[in-house]
Amino acid sequence: MATFLYKMGRLAFRRRPFVALAWVALLVLAGVGATSAATSSSSSFSIPGTEAQKAFDLLEQRFPGASADGATARVVFKAPAGEKMTDPEHKAEVQKVVADLKSSSKQVTRVVDPYVGKAVSKDGSTAYTQVSYKVSGMELTDASKEALTGAGDEARDAGLTVEIGGDALQAVPETGSTEIIGVAVAAIVLVITFGSLVAAGLPLLTALIGVGIGVSTITALASVLDLGSSTSTLAMMIGLAVGIDYALFIVSRYRAELAEGREHEDAAGRAVGTAGSAVVFAGLTVVIALVGLAVVNIPMLTKMGFAAAGTVVIAVLIALTLVPALLGFAGKRIVGRKARNAATEAEADGNGKAEAKPNMGTRWARFVLRRPVAVLLTGVIGLGVIAIPATSLEMGLPDDGAQPVSTTQRKAYDLLSDGFGPGFNGPLMLVADAQGSEDAKAAFRAVNDRVKGMDGVVATVPGAPNKAGDTSVITVIPKDRPSSAETEELVHSIRDAGADIKSDEGVDVLVTGSTAMNIDFSQKMNDALLPYLALVVGLAFLLLMLVFRSVLVPLKAALGFLLSVVAALGAVVAVFQWGWLGSVLGVEQTGPIMSMMPIFMVGVVFGLAMDYEVFLVTRMREAYVHGERPGQAIVTGFRHGARVVSAAAVIMIAVFAGFIGSSESMIKMIGFGLAIAVFFDAFVVRMAIVPAVLALLGKAAWWLPRWLDKALPNVDVEGEQLRKELGDDVSAGQGKGPDGDRELVSA
User: Fold this and answer.
1) pLDDT digits over 315-333, tens only?
2) What topology is assigned to 72-169 in CATH?
3) What are the extents of the domains in the chain?
4) Rounded to whole angstroms, how far apart are CA atoms 660 and 233?
5) How far apart are CA 353 and CA 346, in angstroms?
6) Which of 298, 270, 314 has the alpha carbon at shortest distance from 599?
7) Which of 132, 145, 499, 544 is deepest in the core (most CB within 10 A)?
8) CA distance linking residue 609 with residue 680, whole number of Å
9) Residue 532's pLDDT band (boundaries 50, 70, 90)?
10) What is the dotted CATH code of the domain comprising 44-66+428-512?
11) Are 686 and 560 in contact (CB under 8 A)?
């Protein structure tokens, strides 16, 4: 592989105008496609194989024309203290709002008068009207949304409190200015790392081009492939981080090759052949982790994974082609002026290399080699303590109750809870299928009475049967809030009673609705976690075995990842569930952790963690293969890789942390979780635990059974075969002090 990539790097360097033009053309083409594509709606949400989904499918079959995908809104009214919503003047104001909403937009299908639909609280203080639309919240026109938000203005002027909830106000999540700050931090880190504005700008430029192509392509295909708004956000988050990192490693290796006296074209080829090989395998681990999300069998999650994986593939291709092309345009400016002057002085002194003090990576590696047990125990115990909150993990999906308290959605949620009870915000929908029953109406009444008498049920509202008279919907109002354990227990109780109801009444009862869907979604994510973990870790283990020609190194990599991801989950629970530092991070409402968070973190963090493992340990493997002792190979790996891996980690943390400023709780949680996980994995696991374990293992770390060594193909990530073909003396430089290279390129 190294030989093939070497030739690719040289070709891209020589044909740089053509390569650069091709990528710019792809960017323009993707941009044109995105601007001309139909506006995407929110991605349809389905959970195949669950009772809630089965009930929705039955509803579509038995109630044709009644779409479950249309947006809904609840306009909630509250009378001033001491007054009631049934007072004539307040009733007139509400009915005027209802009339205005009915005529406000052609997208409105139904507006329920609260006085006709019995939507007034028992104490008379609160009332609400429900508005139904033909299309989803993302497809509502600006005029429809403005009519909705402005519907209660006159009622407010008359003294009523008016708030609006529901998914009709759904909007594309905003990430805020912190995302820009994250990119700015990345730029500063690159300048410090390279000491050159050109070298610092190149990874940023190529990453932005890759993300631009990826996100524009997703936008262009969003309507056709039913991709939601979160898909492009995830792709941008991951694509930007890995795009900068991959280019960073190629540029760093290129500068190191120049410092060895290589010609520019040859240096570009060698950089792509060696660091590029690591980029390919690091990218493969990320792609495996993202594509592996398909094992969960939730279409929305599968599409998000494939879209983000496509952006990672683009980042890898750009690192292998566009980066060496731009290196050709940069020329000598890829090295800072200070470094160029130092190199010139060294040549004038007749010295091929300038003496330099041991860099931070070398000093740290030597420290770990002296105290491997202490470093290992400190790292493992520290992450173990941080992981403790993960034992209290509660999962669910966010609703309006998780919105900031300043939003109208949250205020509407609280008004409904106060006026009608906590369970009113999460009603259950029972689909009663009496097909084949002799007296369907009597059966429906019996089911309603039976469910109404169950513990945890406040009220039931029977609906009208379909035209055939064999199917009906019963709305069940739980006693507790939607995300509570009590409501989840009620759902299971109704389902457990389904067999007896079927036997006694001849009716199949299926529980659905948004609350039941959330419960089924969480259960499905829990059930899929172990199979997904086994699939992803297993495939990546085989991939890393190819790279490192070792059994213990991939095993150590996988175990270290599990430690970092569990610690990250502990931090997420502490912040978003317990509320620690919540005010600092803008978490206004604590609650259950998003159901997809654990499996999503496992997928994304595993791929990113393997990046650092590949980039750092391949340098150690390269030194060991070329004759260095195991301990000296660790020092060599850190001398060349620690600074760059640290810079890459800081950049990735900054990019992910930028999404903490999002207005969407899901994006905020993902941004924090990924940022803290990268911090733990890069600076605790890879920088401390990994060298400590390798120091304790010694030569055993690189052990591979002979039969397995013969069976595995040799992918030559270290570039040993490439060096032989180029006539290099593979022993050159071995046995010398660990700091023979210039500090400027020993990053």
Assistant:
1) 999 999 999 999 999 888 8
2) Alpha-Beta Plaits (3.30.70)
3) 2-36+173-385+519-719, 44-66+428-512, 72-169
4) 12
5) 6
6) 298
7) 544
8) 10
9) confident
10) 3.30.70
11) yes
